[in-house]
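Notebook B, p. 112. Complex prediction, attempt 2.
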Amino acid sequence: MKISKYIAAFLFVATLAACSSSEEVLTGEGNVTLEFDNAYNNSDLLLETAPYSANNTEKIKINKVKYIVSNIRLETATGSVFTYPKNESYFIIDESVEASQFITLKNVPEDDYTKVTFGIGVDQEKYLEGATGQGDFLAKAQEAGMMWSWQAGYKFMVFEGTYTSESTTTETAFAFHMGSHGTAVDNYKEVSLDLTNSARIRTDLTPVIHIVSDVSNILDGTTKFLLDDAAQIHVDGVKSPQIATNVSGMFVIDHVHN
Amino acid sequence: MFIIKPIKPLLRRNLNNGFLPVMKKFILLYLGFITFFSCAKDEEEYVLIPKNIELKIPSNFPGLLYDLSQNPLTEEGVALGKKLFYEGRLASDGIISCGFCHEQASAFTHHGHTVSHGVDGKVGFRNAQPIQNLAFFSEFTWDGAAIHLDLQPIIPITSDVEMNETIPSVLSKLNSYQEYEVLFTNAFGDKEVTSERMLKALSQFMVTMISGDSKYDKVIRNEVDATFTELESKGFEVFNNKCAACHSGALFTDQSYRNNGLPTNYKFPEEEGRKRVSGLEEDFYKFRVPSLRNVAKSFPYMHDGRFGNLEAVLDFYSDGMIQNGGVVDTLLIKSNGNLGIDLSSEEKTALLAFLNTLTDNTFLNDKRFAEF
């Protein structure tokens, strides 16, 4: 009798020890929020206010900043990848619509994620799925002014405002619209970012991945654009891909809230 | 066509064990009757199962490029597509339907118009192209501005010089018209109007619009009593030697974009051809090689409808080509090195005879595609 009590006690302790030493078993699903926080250089982006300096020589006031974020994937340190369902993975970030800057992904497997990947724009594969692939996104994009009317395609990025420079003294409109050019030029680009600290997704923990999007990079990135050279760039076989590269380089992980 | 799905009341009643077995039987019998009568009295719920259509592809045609597995053809889907095709309320003025610029008798082009007319008397800067055999194409319009048939209608619907609408507004209009409740329900199972369903229905209708029953087709397929006249045969030979490099295959186009040395049109200074879509300098004034099916009926010709008849088109190729600021296609060089195609007047006469064999009266008069 006494021995069996000891055995029971031992087993109980052993069980406890096993619990505390083993790794957490993650089988559930949780949510994660991606916050796209638009900035200009090191400052918060404010539309239609004081001018920002672009390329040191031009002053710009920004009226519109919108872009399509798509095909979101999360990766763990061990390399396992979670791909958000493609049909639900298209979003429009609009600086003038605050809610649009927070993308919440649902039913993500519990894990510690260390990397996020997303596309800017709409991939050719999606286009080629026809009406099936577009679903409601088509109407949403049109409502948000993210579709061209003369081409059956999406604007991946809209950047508009007015500017002045030494030679342009009256406020002059500028507009950069970037998207793919039919089958001729594919401007869809993917961005992969390592997280500053891992995003711990649990059924009861919804981390926020805070991404800063520095829109000054659109004019002043890998390629420098002077608005005096071209203030309106919509479909340009040479410049549009350069704008796409600048846009894809404007994202930085600021931090992750767990 | 109709499947009857009666609503069966569920019998879920625990019979008390204390009842006599006889009593139990009576109760069951009684409940059985209730069930029986309630069935008979209930309104039967009809669920329409859309009837699949098999697409008949002419034996001399290439394979389909439209993926029907994503949008299976049904009678109800095609019927909805046809209704939408002729629906003027898709436009902001309630008048300009797809069929307004795409008339059947002219191979679904805008009869006699150089460029298309839209809402409020606005004019575009392109000639309406025929709607035929589109399921065999991968890119659409003169410059490839649409890369999927489903997405093509977005352009005319939203262009301010055509139908001047937005997709969300069109959807909300369609949602408010009672007749569409039935049509969408029949085609897609419920009355919800979505962009996906609207575009799929339009595609279904357009996919069925196959023109492959011209005299040319019958001759090629060795059908009984189908032979070219001597002049048509001569024209076919000239065509194969001098035109078929671009106007190739059963569709009479290689679906490429080419600059054919057409002088630019000062009336439409914004026109840049394929460059408008690609943004590439080398694509200036390149246009898609058009299909020549029903070509005798789809006048006027070229992207801006500048030529009123086929004679003028052939004269242009023999004598009218110029360096237009783009890169003129290298296939279009005469034996003397000048731009153009060597064509004698006899050859032109023969070509015209051959081109007329591409007219498909079955298609042009097919009631399935007619508005009324």
